[in-house]
Amino acid sequence: MQARYTILERLGGGGQAEVFRGVAESMAGFKKSVAIKRVLPSLTSNPMFVAMFLDEAKLSLFLQHANVVHVFDISRAPDGTYFLVMEFVEGCDLKALLERETARGNRLEIAHAIYIMLETCKGLNYAHTLEHPETHAPLNIVHRDVSPPNIMLSKNGEVKVVDFGLAKANSQVESTDPGVVKGKFAYLSPEAASGLEVDRRTDVFAVGILLWEMFTGRRLFHADSPYQTVEAVRAARVPSITAINPAVEPELDAIVRKALARDPDQRYQWAADLGDALANYLFSRGMKVTARDIAALVRDTRVELLRKAAPRASLVDALVNDELAALTSLVGDDPAPPPPPIPARGSPPPQAPAQSDMVDTASWINDLGLDDID
Q1: Choice among 55, 79, 93, 145 that is catalytic
Q2: pLDDT tens, 298-357?
Q3: Domains and CATH numbers, the chain
Q4: Is 145 one of the catalytic residues?
Q5: pTM for this one?
Q6: Left if phi > 0, otherwise alpha if psi is -120 to 50, otherwise beta: which for 286?
């Protein structure tokens, strides 16, 4: 029996996709919370993009690591739009955590920032070194979009890298056109910003950006326009962290500076190398930090997020349940009759959805004044 998916609420969206919380129901009525990432309908009309998306989505099914959000399935809606069905991480992303600290006039504690990036390096290094399970050929996965929204923090203090949707591997069918810049501008590497070929060291550079920003409470490469931001990344001029935040010792500043070397050959060559340098610093300074510390930060952040969302959450849930159909798995060949939709937050079960095209919910959220995820 194939899994069947029902949308419960929209979590956010960006330029390529929108994310929902849903429920997967399979054999004997077993239910599991999942995150469902739908490619925007406007992009699925491009055959080349669809081919690239499916190839990369299949690649992501190989990723199984404690520090990587697990992708369970690939799904397709009646209107032909595609979805990734992923592990649902109950918590918040790094972006929300940092925004909360900034709003309170604080920086994240140095030890906490190091711990989060150390765990991030574990997940990235796993992906960078992954081999095909049958041929044992290196997949050469590069995330290409390591940024605050793509670092998830669970309520138990786990750190997980999400969204390898821009990953590029040698097994990819569709190659990126030369000179095309992919990824969030402010978190690109100089080589990516120049449209050059990238490898695992571009992710090392992105981790360096995150470290710099967490230690200083400022943005490293952020200008008035995308063009100016890309130019700043290409130049890769990195101010001293210690000069901005004297609590950061020169040794730690040097670790970040090496990760941010403009020349990839001068950086840490593997995410594990950067992770080791961070771990050595923690241990040498006797800094104790565990997942329990991160869990406390996540808990406080979630309280504020839920408080802000509460007045309008019920309306969003109602719209989603009224308009979004259940999704059917693309993995497997044995179709099964759909179960009835699952009601959200104690509401009465909605009517069975019509077999018409799915509604683009982005306009609903915009009408309600909700912000999208970067």
Answers
A1: 145
A2: 999 998 888 877 655 554 554 444 444 445 555 544 444 444 444 444 444 444 333 333
A3: 4-89+310-368 (3.30.200.20), 91-297 (1.10.510.10)
A4: yes
A5: 0.79
A6: left
